[in-house]
Amino acid sequence: MEETIFFHTEDISLPDFFDSARIESWLKKLANTLGVTLVQINYIFCSDDYLLQINQEYLQHDYYTDIITFPYQQGKNIESDIFISLDRVRENAAEFADGDYARELLRVIAHGLLHLSGYGDKTDEEAVKMRAAENKAIESY
Q1: Do residues 3 and 38 lie in contact, with contact meaning Cβ atoms separated by under 8 Å?
Q2: Are 44 and 8 in contact (CB under 8 A)?
Q3: Would you give the end-to-end CA distance of the chain in angstroms?
Q4: Among residues 12, 43, 13, which one has the least CA distance to residue 106?
Q5: Helix segments in the chain, DSSP class H
Q6: What is the pTM of this model?
């Protein structure tokens, strides 16, 4: 089965450092490490306002977030739309990642795939495991 990853933008441009071919290769290797197949993943990069609207409309949440994942198929074969607010990632990088926007974007991109592969982050214990998996994924980039 061919793995398919698409990168889209809505109302925002990708940063100059974004290397879609390298990120696609990295995600496929990460999926292999996790024992999953990426049937199709659409990463949609957008603004805070765009993602807030999705959060309100589909999840009935009235707050900004950096990522929303809509899984269509999970388990061994993954199919999903993953929305990422580049505005929120940039702000979180300034606040939590010493201003390293590129590293924070990789973390959020990996975070979506990790969620789809079974990682949670609702409890403190899950969050610690998620953060360790994110860091390991970033190191493999």
Answers
A1: yes
A2: yes
A3: 24
A4: 43
A5: 20-34, 48-59, 86-96, 101-116, 124-139
A6: 0.95
SS3 assignment, position 141: coil
For 25, what's the count of Cα atoms within 13 Å in the CB-facing half-sphere? Answer: 6
CA 75 to chain centre: 17
Summarised one tens digit per residue, pLDDT across range 51-93 is 999 999 999 999 999 999 999 998 899 999 999 999 999 999 9
CB 74 within 8 Å of CB 37: no
Tell me the C-alpha distance between 141 and 107, whole Å.
10
Given a contact cutoff of 8 angstroms between Cβ atoms, the answer to whether 42 and 6 are in contact is yes
Residue 120 · residue 82 · CB < 8 Å: no
Please state, in angstroms and rounded to a whole number, the distance separating the CA atoms of residues 58 and 91: 24
